[in-house]
Amino acid sequence: MEEEKLHSVGIDVSKAKLDVALKLPAGKWKSKVVANTAAGFVELRAWLAKQGVVKAHVCMEATGVYWEAVATELVDQGVTVSVINPAQIKAFAGTQGVRTKTDAVDARVIADFCAMHVPQAWRPAAKSVRRLCALVARREALLDLRTQESNRLEVTATEEVRTSIEQVIAVLDRQIQQIERQIAKDVDGDPTLREQRDLLDSIPGVGDKTISTLLSHYGGELRFEKTAQAVAFAGLDTRKHESGSSVQGKPRLSKQGHSAIRRALYMPAVVAMTKTAWGKAFSHRLLAAGKPKKLVLGALMRKLLAIAYGVLKSGKPFNPALHT
């Protein structure tokens, strides 16, 4: 019977370390700090086994990208893992009257949240999608570096410095081309990603870079039941701030999601607004209602993502007749 008990474990994740809080069935606590590395993950599993933990529900916050490695490792080992929005943990801490904020205290708060609410289990993406996500992230980092060097080139007068910058840009261009070829090869080599790429390619204005970005976050086995969840994942959902008759804030994009997805959808939204029949009809309707152009672009980005996820979910190419 002792082995059948489910232990709640909270992990406060940072770049270098993991603060772990184990809530025992009797209400007592055990704490441990391990490195946020592969060796630290082995140490964590050994420590949990030493505490007599056979079944565990591990919860952690979605803190940047630092949680992904430990969450994936634990799931691969058969552990139930939930990844929580930090805003939920913060609100929960307030309801529990927690006034102290340290990594150790945060880990206990996460464990309490885990035990009380039993959140939904998190599932990692397939290895092919994880690899694609890493390649796309690297490409974006290289593109940012190239933009920085190009900006320096425009304001540099010294010939020696210009030569150095041009050489760095040439190296970056070769690296970007190499990453692009690898992305295309990986997508072509995976039947699911290849089929999903062809579906996304049917959407006017969505190019190769946007498609690879969407596949890196939404490709493979679809993890969102509703399109609205996919939209919120990118931070393109609308946030309202209204109260009574005195507070009437303007609706805004929440931007509480992956900025890379929003950035990838900006130019396709511009193209949809100016070049496609459905995009023109959609934007003209909002502009006629007095909406500013910036808001219309945001709405088009949200609409494009909804269309993209709908295409992936239905398995059918884009049909312009449904959107004009």
Structure description:
The chain folds into 2 domains: 116 residues, Nucleotidyltransferase, domain 5, CATH 3.30.420; 124 residues, no CATH class. 29% of the residues are buried. Helix 7 crosses helix 8, helix 9 crosses helix 12 and helix 10 packs across helix 11. Strand 1 and strand 2 form a beta hairpin. It contains 12 helices and 9 strands. The chain is globular. The protein is an alpha/beta fold. A 5-stranded mixed beta sheet has the order 3-2-1-4-5. It has a two-stranded antiparallel sheet with strand order 6-9.
Strand content: 5-15%
Order of helices and strands: EEEHEHEHHHHHHHEEEEHHH
Oligomeric status: single chain
Number of DSSP strand runs: 9
Q: Could you report the average pLDDT, rounded to the nearest whole number?
A: 90
Helix amount: 55-70%
Class of secondary structure makeup:
alpha/beta
* Main sheet summary: 5 strands, mixed
Radius of gyration, whole Å: 23 Å
Which runs of at least 5 residues are low in confidence (pLDDT < 50)?
A: none
Give the N-to-C terminal Cα separation: 61 Å
What's the domain count? 2
Shape: globular
Q: What is the overall number of helices?
A: 12
Strand order of the largest sheet: 3-2-1-4-5
List keywords for this structure.
324 residues, alpha/beta, Nucleotidyltransferase, domain 5, 5-stranded mixed sheet, two-stranded antiparallel sheet
Brief write-up:
The protein has helices at residues 38-50, 68-76, 86-95, 103-117, 127-155, 159-189, 191-201, 208-218, 227-233, 259-275, 277-288, 293-314; strands at 6-13, 17-23, 29-35, 55-61, 80-84, 238-239, 242-243, 247-248, 252-253.
